[in-house]
Amino acid sequence: MNLKNIPRIKNTESNNFFLLCGPCAIEGEEMALRIAEKVVKITDKLEIPYVFKGSFKKANRSRIDSFTGIGNEKALKILRKVSETFDVPTITDIHENSDAAMAAEYVDILQIPAFLVRQTDLVVAAADTGKTVNLKKGQFMSPESMKHAVTKVEETGNPNVMATDRGTMFGYSDMIVDFRGIPTMKEFATTVLDVTHSLQQPNQSSGVTGGRPEMIGTIARAGIAAGVDGLFMETHFDPANAKSDGANMLHLDHLEKLLTNLVAIRKAVNSF
């Protein structure tokens, strides 16, 4: 995938990793713009190609009373406003075939969630929009098996596809990252490491997914050292009160220091 095919993407000549980053879910306009403004400022300073991430709805929830969104059109319009306000591309995940064409009217990249990446009709619907497609590796899948999902996109005539590792299930309530998967997936696709979801602790007795955010820096540094093309991270200025995935998000105040360290590691990797 050629990163330059993503509209509004900047800093593509920096030889840095690219970043997909934002809140888990769009909770409102003010919070989305606040987060985007901060991340844009940091990534421009560090010359990191940046895509704002925000889910317009959350379909995979542990409990029926979990937050699912503020309304599809309302959230998608906020994503468009972020893009127009800060001149950055945006990404959101889709869950049903009909979501693909609808979301494609507002965002630049369509993301297929990990639990749905084997759903052929959904993958093809995303690919048929002509938008870049980000395929999350299923927690139950090997890196090698992601080649088939990538091929589904490419065989529609859409070459703009990336694969994202987001950890593998380890027992019932924990995730692990097998860094051997990064060079494996790089053989057939632009490869991203989803740092924050890799630190989830699902299936908690409370029905609310846990996480280990204190390990975000460790996983991110290891991913850059392993040669990943891009990083995916969710961030919020108040993770404790975020409406989705707060337990494994990076506090927005800690983002600049982490990205500064990661850029230094990337420079070292590039020199080898």
Helices and strands, with pairings:
Blueprint: E1 18-22, H1 29-46, E2 50-53, H2 72-86, E3 90-93, H3 97-104, E4 109-112, H4 120-128, E5 132-136, H5 146-154, E6 161-165, E7 168-169, E8 175-176, H6 181-186, E9 190-194, E10 200-201, E11 210-211, H7 216-225, E12 230-236, E13 250-251, H8 255-270
Parallel strand pairs: 1-2, 1-12, 2-3, 3-4, 4-5, 5-6, 6-9, 9-12, 12-13
Antiparallel strand pairs: 7-8, 10-11
Helix pairs in contact: 1-2, 1-8, 3-4, 4-5, 7-8
Keywords:
8 helices; two-stranded antiparallel ribbon; TIM Barrel; eight-stranded parallel beta barrel
Low-confidence stretches: none
Could you name the CATH class? Alpha Beta
CATH level 3 topology = TIM Barrel
Name the beta content range: 15-25%
The Rg value, from CA coordinates, equals: 17 Å
Return the structural class: alpha/beta
Number of domains: 1
H/E element order: EHEHEHEHEHEEEHEEEHEEH
Task: Indicate the CATH architecture.
Answer: Alpha-Beta Barrel
What is the count of DSSP helices, taking H or I runs of 4+ residues? 8
Alpha-carbon distance between the termini? 23 Å
Major beta sheet summary:
8 strands, parallel, barrel
What is the share of helical residues?
25-40%
**What would CATH call the homologous superfamily?**
Aldolase class I
Task: Please provide the count of β strands.
Answer: 13
Read across the widest sheet, the strand sequence of neighbours is 1-2-3-4-5-6-9-12
Report the mean per-residue pLDDT as an integer. 93
Shape: globular
Pathway: Bacterial outer membrane biogenesis; lipopolysaccharide biosynthesis; Carbohydrate biosynthesis; 3-deoxy-D-manno-octulosonate biosynthesis; 3-deoxy-D-manno-octulosonate from D-ribulose 5-phosphate: step 2/3
Catalytic activity: D-arabinose 5-phosphate + phosphoenolpyruvate + H2O = 3-deoxy-alpha-D-manno-2-octulosonate-8-phosphate + phosphate
Keywords: Cytoplasm, Transferase
GO molecular function: 3-deoxy-8-phosphooctulonate synthase activity
